[in-house]
TrEMBL record:
Highest taxon of source: Eukaryota
Name under which the protein is recorded: Uncharacterized protein
Bilayer-spanning residue ranges: 68-88, 100-123, 129-153, 165-185, 205-232, 244-263, 275-294
Organism lineage: Eukaryota, Fungi, Dikarya, Basidiomycota, Agaricomycotina
One GO MF term attached to the UniProt entry: unfolded protein binding
Entry's Gene Ontology cellular component terms: endoplasmic reticulum membrane
Organism: Gymnopus androsaceus JB14
Keywords: Membrane, Transmembrane, Transmembrane helix
A Pfam family: Chs7
Any one biological process term the GO annotation gives: protein folding
InterPro entries named among the record's database cross-references: Chs7
């Protein structure tokens, strides 16, 4: 598999969201639509993916309820994140409160878009599904910038909650969101081809810019975040206990990605195409966010709160 090639991923990883963009790329071209075979041949029942070896068919087809497990996981995760946002808001004087809240809000926003994009609810190749998937991709790439921004703020290079911190955050957020949205729509719709498919052959399912913004950039951001936070905790704060939360968060995040790529097909085959590994990934991703909140709380628990009885 070459760098930025989605062919193998879209056929072997059930419910891999970004494959929605390539399905439209193929189905909208009469010369390429014949490449859609097997489960992908009929767009009204096709699961997420490109000719997947196993996939959850669209809701209503042969009694399918869609990717119900991940739909429930996303809904429950949204409730959990709302609770985390409210708890964050209570810690009025805690360092990095505004930045953490912004990250939690972004994660919350990714969940309904994930639910719609890989829930097998909408017809494959439809404009609605493509737009929802593109927005989801843009939110994910922006979320990882917010994650990295939280680590940078924790170093206190600039004072948290001030314009010196928030202005760069929102400017870069807008640029990353807009850039990823443009790339995603260009892959699916071929509006300009400037940052769309990275091959003259659309059937190759190749897009280096999309791969960079939805896979490489999140991985790099996560690595830098954990590296910076461990440096802050162990070298600047001289604390040991909060490290556990961040280590556990890192483990949960890695396991969530393994659930996507390694468990997805195993669970899909074992359940008769009723569920796949996406719901486990969502649960672990939400657990990661929860552990990051606990880690942040543990290193700011000496901050002055309006009502310390909450803690």
């Amino acid at each position: 598999m070459s760098f930025g090639d989605y062919s193998d991923i879209c056929s072997s990883v059930p419910s891999y969201t970004w494959c929605n963009l390539f399905y439209r790329q193929l189905s909208a071209n009469s010369n390429l639509s014949s490449l859609l075979t097997g489960l992908s041949a009929n767009s009204t029942s096709a699961p997420v993916g490109i000719n997947p070896s196993c996939g959850i068919e669209r809701v209503g087809n042969d009694g399918s309820v869609g990717n119900i497990a991940n739909i429930v996981a996303c809904a429950l995760s949204m409730a959990v994140v709302v609770g985390l946002i409210l708890l964050t808001e209570r810690r009025k004087a805690a360092v990095g409160r505004v930045e953490l809240r912004n990250m939690l809000v972004l994660y919350f926003l990714t969940l309904p878009f994930q639910l719609m994009a890989n829930g097998s609810l909408l017809i494959q190749g439809s404009t609605g599904l493509v737009v929802l998937t593109a927005i989801h991709a843009a939110l994910v790439s922006t979320l990882f910038w917010a994650l990295l921004a939280n680590a940078l703020v924790s170093t206190q290079v600039v004072e948290d909650g001030t314009m010196a911190s928030l202005a760069p955050f929102f400017i870069l957020s807008a640029l990353i969101f807009g850039g990823t949205l443009y790339i995603s729509l260009d892959v699916a719709l071929g509006i300009t081809q400037l940052l769309g498919p990275s091959s003259s052959d659309p059937g190759q399912l190749l897009s280096i810019p999309l791969f960079v913004m939805t896979s490489l950039w999140p991985a790099l951001s996560a690595f830098l975040y954990f590296a910076i936070m461990l440096y802050v905790i162990l070298n600047m704060l001289k604390e040991g206990r909060p490290t556990l939360y961040y280590v556990l968060a890192g483990v949960a995040f890695v396991l969530s990605q393994l659930a996507w790529f390694l468990l997805g097909k195993v669970i899909c085959d074992g359940s008769g195409s009723k569920v796949d590994g996406s719901f486990i990934a969502t649960i672990l991703e939400t657990a990661t966010v929860g552990l990051l909140f606990l880690g942040w709380k543990s290193i700011t628990e000496g901050a002055w709160d309006d009502d310390s009885t909450y803690y």
